Each structure stands twice: as structure tokens, then as C-alpha cells.
Amino acid sequence: MDIELPGISDQQRMVFEMATREAINQLNANLKAPRLPVQIEVDESQYSRTHLLRKHEGWEPPAPELVRAYFKHFQANFEAYDTDKKLASLLRIASDRRIRKFKEGSQDIPYEIWRNFLTLTGRVPQEIVPVIAFMG
């Protein structure tokens, strides 16, 4: 008995299509996330908005006061992330000490970590990268 299997490139294409459909479903689910009140720890109008830009648009690290306010607001609204250790895990950071360093301002929060947090909290849209071609 012979079992016909699709070639590797066809299998890769099927995996890509399945992952893309899952991503589309997640993007649609994201649109239904709850809307929470804004943070009131700091007056955001007193700060530059460059922390909301993409790297190539002139992003600058947020002021520690904003990091603290955003993190505190998030942690107050989500018990699953109410400690720095839990927040570090969500942001895929090995140590909660780094969260504390970001909050106190002794270390700037890296772009990738900040952008991920902004995306998770609906402050910026997710970036979708176009596929130019399937190579192989």
C-alpha cells in the first residue's frame, strides 16, 4: 500500500496557511478585548509621545514615570499579572529585577519589550509584515 504525501514545500505552505488563519482569528478576537479606563497616575500630556512611535519613526524610550504608571495601571486591572515577576513572565523577561529597573528609571526599557507591552494593552496596533514571496 502506498500513501501519497504532499511534498515538503506543499506541507510548508499548508502550515503557513493554517498559522495565517489562526493569526486572523486572533486579530479578530483582539478587537473584542475589554476597554478599561485610562491610567490616572500621571498626566500624559506633560510627556512626549515618542514612546508610542515605531523605531524607524523616531521612537524614544518612555520616561520612567510613564513606565511606572502604565505597568501599575495594567497590574491593578489584571490579577494574573499583579506582581513584577508575573509581568516579567508575560513580557518574556527572565527577571523581575529588570521590571523594577524600568520602573525606577535606572535602565531604559528596550524598544521590543515596550512595543510588546503597548500592543498587549491596545495602545498601538500589531504590526503585520507582508510576505513578498515564498522562497523554496
Structure characteristics:
0% strand, 136 residues, elongated
Question: H/E element string?
Answer: HHHHH
Q: Helix count? A: 5
Give the distance, in angstroms, between the N- and C-terminal Cα atoms: 30 Å
The coarse silhouette is: elongated
Radius of gyration: 20 Å
Strand content: under 5%
Residue share in helix: 40-55%
**Count of individual beta strands:** 0
* Unreliable residue runs: none
Mean pLDDT: 95
Strand count, sense and closure of the main sheet? none
Structural class: mainly alpha
Plain-language structure description:
The protein has five helices and no strands. The model has no long low-confidence stretch (mean pLDDT 95). By secondary structure, it is mainly alpha-helical. 46% of the residues lie in helices and 0% in strands. It has a domain at 44-120.
